[in-house]
Amino acid sequence: EETGKSGYDHYMIKEIHEQPRALRQCLRERVDEMAGTVDLDDLGDLSPTGVQFVACGTSYHAALYGAHLFREAGIPAQAFLASEYATSVPPIGDALVIGVTQSGETADTLSALRAAEKRGARTLVVTNVVGSTAARECDHAFYIRAGPEIGVAASKTFSSQLAALNLLTLGMTQGDDTREVINALRELPGDLQRILDESSAEAVAELYQDAGAYFFIGRGLQFPVALEGALKMKEITYKHAEGFAAGELKHGPLALVTADTPVFAVVIGDDEKARKTVGNVKEVEARDAPVVAITDGQTDVHRYADHVLQIPETHPRAAAVLANAHLQLLSYHTAAKLGRNIDKPRNLAKSVTVE
Ligand code: G6P
To answer: Where is the protein localized (predicted)?
Structure first.
């Protein structure tokens, strides 16, 4: 087991550090850099008129991100929690139903995909495991190629899912900024490596390890990052953590914000979305909450933040992966300081095969 960890204390931190390599594997041979195109020939002609995503846990957060990308490309898309989808299947029309599942074995996701198939839908799975049940049962499989993940809490497979969903949308739709996204994806492994080398997330974890609760906020593409930041924190530290859409904070959750609840705000770019999130940050700062900004520094959010976890300026799609890396390190180091069983958190399983 110790050799398997290659000198790291836990599989999870090893897998966090494997992300640059996992991303390179995901992108390899699928991106034609000269032509600025993505090759999805093995999937045939999918050109969907609509997309429904089904997924659980971390994969659901990737699905929310994926649905956002399709909508940006003008294709109606929605992400569903697989357990809810299977309970009440929405009208599918001729939408493509995409399951996102690291293992390809999650019972809720399989059940949702089967329900869709029974209604005549075309199905595709985005998975890490070749030959998994979902890969065998779906019409098409897109492999994220992250390599085996042992830690129960997903880390490298989430960033590879995000990269894979970029490739899928670029290959299936005519986006205006395909070349720009491809360039950002190419730079992602290097940018991610720098964050892993330089992040001050461990120092932030040290400061807030005794906090009563942790809140994460983000807007648009960064909303799934906030949800994933909170899920990781819950899973491996057993602390109360919640992710909120930044704009929703004032509609209830703000009542929970105190000087004992650090708020982690993902603020990328300097468009209207980012500026509105800075407004939300001011609201929590005014209630004495410690603020940690995960930002590329394009707004003045640092003025309201106690700490900044810096990411380089890049495309917002790539920024989501980079911001998430800081949050993975934050949760990991908090859990390590609290002495938690990081690779096998209580009550959780890597793959849940019951509904
Ligand atoms: C379990 C794991 C989570 C994972 C979820 C979905 O609950 O503990 O980390 O996100 O299953 O797994 P999947 O293999 O479908 O991505």
So the answer is: Cytoplasm
